[in-house]
Amino acid sequence: MNSLIISPSRLGLATFAGIIGGIGIGSVGFISLSIVFAAFVLSAFLLIDGFLRRRRLILLGFFLLALSLGALRADFAFLPAARIEAKSVHVFATVQDTLSKTATAQRTLISVRDESLPAQILLVSSPAPELQRGDEILVSGTLKDIPAKYTSPGGPQAEIYFPKTIEVKSVGWSFVRLADLIRQRFTRSLHAIFAEPAAAYMAGLLLGEKTSLPTSLKGALSKTGTAHIVALSGYNITIVAISISWLLLWFHASPRVRFLGGVLGILIFIFIASGGASGVRAAIMGFLGLLAKSRGRIFEMTNALLFAAVCMLALDPSLLIFNLSFQLSFLATLGLVIMTPILQPYLAWIPAGFDLRGTVAATLSAEIFVLPLISWHFGVVSLISPITNLLVLPLIPLTMLFGFIAAAVGILIPWLGFLVGLAARVLISYELGVITLTAKIPFASLNLSGPYALAFGLVPFLFASVYFYQRLVSRHWPK
């Protein structure tokens, strides 16, 4: 073990993994400063001993030091917020995000310029005036704490519930407003081209929009383990980028052009989806997933993925435990990195032409890692999921590609968008048919509590453990 190669890449991997692990530990429960200090001291002794005598301890020292730093960052992030006494306010604010809207109310996230007030406030108001991202507003109402059971770390801790008055002060042009306008027109184009529930399904695939999905379809997606395909995450964005890259291959484009086309597709997707901060995080993960697939050595992407995750978690540690979109993005990209080279030899029966085999391998790799997470969050373990996903997932890239082109064309030329959407209609009919049919099979899914559902994560956990063991402990790099 003393001949273990201590390369910068291995040190980086140990450090990034330690920080993420520390943030995870600190997010679950408060770690006292005495324990963190003891870990610092122990890591210092390990590093000194490692540099002087036993080199194998260097990695352990770096990992423990990073673990302590991660736990310390989480502790500071989750300090109890000071309670806010209910009081009347009259403040200028900026609309950061539009969360939801119904016939009776709209929920928006606003930021205020008054330093004596919380940075983020949940505003619940009547549907009129309709608020959009970037609006400058003047709000008069009662500011009060949100009950603890309705809050989450990293989210707003105070709200203004149905204020007395809301005055929109400025509605000027902005990049955000342009993105929202294009998203609205894109959504209208989707609903003009496709009938329900195909329109809602396509909006979920392309925009992560789930509010318009029929209840029956939501249930079928949950039972078949396919709910992740209608969430805005790095998984979906990776599929978009891979689809564009695959399409360019038909035109004999070079690998460089295909990669740049995929990156452009990611930028356009996020612009239209208007995902805000969560969309940007998903785009970063999607970019890493595309980069991982385009490189000859997928293993080299692990450090880049963990570094990106560390940067995001350093800004907002609550993402690791409390943000499903981040979890889906991270696990999907990790699955792409680890599982793709493992699965490809077993998919020899799929034609290799136009990178079809690689595309299917990448899609299934991401699915293997996100399925246990879906089961954990929704308390439903789908026994039929492997079959449903095998029948549906290989066609998702084409569905998203044709649907995107149809909706984009339909904004300018509705009748042409309708014609272009014919191919997507056929694919959607097949996919919804498979999902609906397999959901009706007896014992297609089991309702299990979290700990039992988590057991289904053993497969990806074992693959990830073996992979990181090879990267950190083995004397040779994995081939």
Which key phrases capture this entry?
479 residues; OB fold (Dihydrolipoamide Acetyltransferase, E2P); 3 domains; five-stranded mixed β-barrel; two-stranded antiparallel sheet; 18 helices; transmembrane helix; cell membrane
Number of strands: 8
Estimated structural class: alpha+beta
Give the ordered list of helices and strands: HHHEEEEEEHHHHHHHHHHEHHHEHH
Helix content: 55-70%
**Outline type:** globular
* Average of pLDDT: 79
Number of domains: 3
Largest sheet: 5 strands, mixed, barrel
Model regions low in confidence, pLDDT < 50 over at least 5 residues: none
* Beta-strand content estimate: 5-15%
Count up the helices.
18
Could you give the order of strands across the largest sheet?
Answer: 1-2-3-5-4
Q: Span from first to last CA?
A: 20 Å
Radius of gyration (Å)? 24 Å
Concise summary:
The chain is of the alpha+beta class. It has helices at 8-28, 33-52, 56-77, 175-193, 198-207, 215-223, 234-250, 255-273, 276-294, 301-315, 319-322, 324-343, 356-378, 385-392, 396-412, 414-439, 450-454, 458-472, and strands spanning 87-101, 106-112, 120-125, 136-145, 158-161, 165-170, 380-382, 445-447. Residues 205-468 form the ComEC/Rec2-related protein domain.
